[in-house]
Automatic annotation (TrEMBL):
The lineage of its organism: Eukaryota, Metazoa, Chordata, Craniata, Vertebrata. Residues 205-263 form the JmjC domain. Its EC number is 1.14.11.-. Its cofactor is Fe(2+). PANTHER family: MINA53 MYC INDUCED NUCLEAR ANTIGEN, RIBOSOMAL OXYGENASE 1. Oxygenase that can act as both a histone lysine demethylase and a ribosomal histidine hydroxylase. Its main location: nucleus. Belongs to the ROX family. NO66 subfamily. Keywords: Chromatin regulator, Dioxygenase, Iron, Metal-binding, Nucleus, Oxidoreductase, Repressor, Transcription, Transcription regulation. Residues 45-63 have a biased composition (Basic and acidic residues). This is Bifunctional lysine-specific demethylase and histidyl-hydroxylase.
Amino acid sequence: MTSPLQAKSPPAKKIKRKENGIQPKNKLNKKKTVKPLKSNMRLSSSDKEKSKAEKECETHNGEGVDSPALDALLMDLTKVNNSRDRANRLFQDNWEKKPILIQRQNPDFYKGLFSTAEFDQILRNDDVQYGVNLDVTSYTNGKRETHNPPGRALPYTVWDFYESGCSLRMLNPQAFSSTVWQVLSILQEKFGSMAGANVSEDEVLPLVSSPNFNQNEIGQPIMDVVLEAGDLLYFPRGFIHQGDCLPNAHSLHITISSFQRNSWGDLLLKLMPASLEIAMEEDVEFRKGLPLDYLQFMGVQNSEKDDPRRSKFIAHVEGLMKNLVSYAPVDAAVDQKARDFLHDCLPPMLSAEEKASSVYGAPARWGDGKALDVTVQLKGQTQIRLVRAGAARLCGDGDTVSLFYTTENSRVYHKEEPKSTEMKTEHIDAMEFLIHSYPKFVSVASLPCETMEAKMSLAELLFEKGVIRTAEPLTAE
């Protein structure tokens, strides 16, 4: 019996290469060493836009690209006080405009981001599941096949797939790699939408087009380049890309995507149903019945008719659509988008300093047969702020206001339900004050609540949820 995710049933080790769903290849003898990454990346757009896009594509070689290695850059970013500014340091002015190739001529630039050795350690030490965290694929005779057996992916099987000519794709490296997690958590705050990643190990991978297009539909590429280790290729949404690992070359590359489902159209998908619901409640024009004979002159079968009733009908629909704008609950629709975003988000990755001054560094512990240092308390003079600009957000829902936050999210996409807490009326103004004060620290006593008890209860709630940190680590009394 075969699994839906399998091309073939996994056989015994000695004959597995043939029965994994691919034919064994005659391979050249070579050293088992990691070679510089060399992936042939091709970008395509419609023929109509090809000429314009070719002119707009940019290539920057090593000259003028004087930047520190990634690990040094990330270390420097932890020193930036405002988390929004951290993201701005990584932002390119080509965003959503044109492809750009950055050739750094520095093969060690991404050293520390992710490596084959780290991937191997993850396979050994973590619960990596086929189809959930890892895909094994091949491309033979113009057909892509997936060879995921059921269960956990262990080095014994995974590397045999690789040696047989398969490609390995880790679907969510941020769940296992703290460095990838850190990069994505910075990017998601800048883009205001989820940032995702996958890592691919390729040895012999022919061109694979998007599953939505065939080769004839793609057309000619507007950019055809060879990526070396340390290079970066950015292309906006709407561009099709293909990757081809050069012969006898090992390729490890990471793909990062963001800003998906974050267009005006996506906002309107939230806004229009709510607008129509309100309009039907408040405006009798939206509740009036359709003409009794509208089926006789409207619809596809009547679309070619020269009937004045059609023009009148369409004009009436246009009028209702224009009036619908006045009923649009724009802020409520944005809050819906925000709730979705906060659910999608990775939790913030805290620096050592941030951990020490948050609930994760509180000194409470078990020792000498009892709980120790549990008397740590926030005080009126304690300075507090959000751990991140985007870590929490107030969202309205009818008569209630809730605080949605990311600090208890999982690094695995949607593993947890959305995290929120309903706000007491006496806390709403203080929460807004705290959000808008970021990145400044403010004292608990300065929170605009009527009583000191209300100020302390809000601060303690936020501290326990990991939403705020203190200017200095708390100490036991």
